[in-house]
Please model this.
Amino acid sequence: MDKFNINDVYYSMFLEETKEQIEKIEQDLLLLENGQGNMETINDIFRMAHSIKGASATMGFEDMEKLSHSLENLLSKIRDKEIDIDVNILNIFFKGIDGFKYIHQSLSKGEECIIDLNELIEEIDDIVKSRKGLEKKVVLEDENGEALNKKNDAQNIEDVDLELSDYEKKLCENIDLELKLYKIIIIMSSNTKMKSVKAFLIANNLVGIGDIITTDPINFEQLPDEDFKNIFKIVFAANKEYEEIYKNINSISEIEKIIIKKVRDSKKQVETPKNVKIIEKKEKFKRKEISTIRVDVNKIDKLLNLVGEFIIDKEALNQIGDGLKRRYKGDTLVSKLVSMLPHINYIGTELQETVMSTRMLSLEHIFNRFPRMVRDLSQKCNKDINFIIEGKETEIDRGIIEELIDPLTHIIRNAIDHGLETMAERKLTQKDKVGTLKLIARHEENNVVIEIEDDGKGINVERIKKKVMEKNLAREEELQTLSNGEIINYIFEPGFSTAKEVTDISGRGVGLNVVRENIRKLNGIIEIKSEEGIGTKFVIKLPLTLAIIQALLIGEKSYTFAIPITSIIETLRLKEEEMIDKIHKVGNSEFFDWRDQAIPIIRIGEYFDVCKERNNKKLFIVVVGHSEKRFAFIVNKLLEEQEIVIKSMGAFIGKDKLLGNIKGISGVSVLGDGRFAHILDIASLTRS
Model:
């Protein structure tokens, strides 16, 4: 830790790259455990472990280097089929990943790592030492077909064709004359499994040093083992010698013999027949190049703030342009200014969308951490769970992603601990012994919807009613007027839990209240759909971004308020006779008849105590939705729909803070004419 400062650019790069590699290894291990991995998966893990070892050695982090070296040795034995992957081996790997994570966490905080990994490293090394390596056999040949090394000759050279076929010669017709051409014959062991995977690994290794012209069989990746003979042929072009080609092939296990023959030296033309159709196969092995650049997130945030200021100035410029156009209708300069405004608006929109896209991250960044958590919890609870993830490529603002980890963790842990039954319980109810847990994300207009669904026991409404009355949250007669969905929402109350016993996973009654509050801070909503005996679904709806939104501006005397467009269902204008017919008072509350239902009314001016005068001739109603509920906001003026930049007031609102407790406002925005618009907190208003 003395060698590098935590703010050092190389140190930061090491932490970022290592974090990605650790996460990817964990995902690949889960694939292997689920039977979805193959030899390429193992090779991916090997390469990443090797990268971690090299990087940690360069940085001087000995513990990480030693652990990655031991895991690399174990992986090498697995690649050579000397060690079979089973639950115990996978558990050791997961222990190693946990060790990596602990070291990484300490390094990220600039702290000294105090974990002792010697016992784990010894456990890995003991497994590696208990197995012996297998020997490969190879034959290298020169241009004349004479063997350079005839040891372990398991098959006669005469049994394989080392000359180029007419088809192969035609494919080589346009190959760069500076490259040497080789015919390579790989003879696999007779008991080799997944031959197509072996062939892919061989081809993938060769792509790194040259070009594959063709293979025999051509469709080797799709061939089952019974149709794949032990011989794999490759025509290869490269500026490499025999030894380097052999080295790249020899790293693959279960190969009996490697025969390499040079069929054309550099600058020598191959004779080819005419009228043969060329089928290009080497594109399949071409590595995709991705151009990326790492940028400090603070620079992105600063750029976004500047774009926000530009949007404010853009709106101001539009208002000035409209004013000048009315005042100086025939002025040439004014006309020129007005004609430029659409292009400025276009540039502003494109700039905003481009900068916003740099802040967008796929939910994969947090979804990928849950398979491991589900695996560990399912083992702890002795439950068999099929965990399905869909839509992890869905993108959302990075500021929202960082705040989603805890809510999703709480819900998934609850689903495993309380939602899904044990295998014995599922058998009694004639359910599949394997429970299903789904984590699904998708875009809906300007929102992201995340669903966590299980096929467990569902929520017992009667038990919730009993708990509600025990905690004096509502009387029995009040509960009788509520729907099951409204009763279920009580589980979001502080300290509310129906768990019969508290476990170290859940059951203390604090998780779901925290979940709701965190989602509300993100201007999102959460709802529950549950059917007893069938399962439970949590639905979270979030805005794409917290920075810039489309809003409807409303006026109350000298004050301007903004209602997010995503919350608005309908806007209406009522005249005097309609007001009498559709607005009713029950006790101290008002209700509006809307689409055959009575919905509560909130008069915005009166709620914020800025305007108590009521217009008896006409009024405007904005119908908004929050979760499954609908409300009618009565406002004095509808001003316009506008794109606004949200400025948080979190640092100034609250007890003992500058502005005190202000309910119903989530932030402010500066408009083009310099006025402030107070952004309504729909969730807070509807709760009141």
Q: What stands out?
A: The chain has five domains: 9-129, 139-285, 297-356, 363-543, 548-687. The two ends are 53 Å apart (CA to CA). The chain has 21 helices and 24 strands.
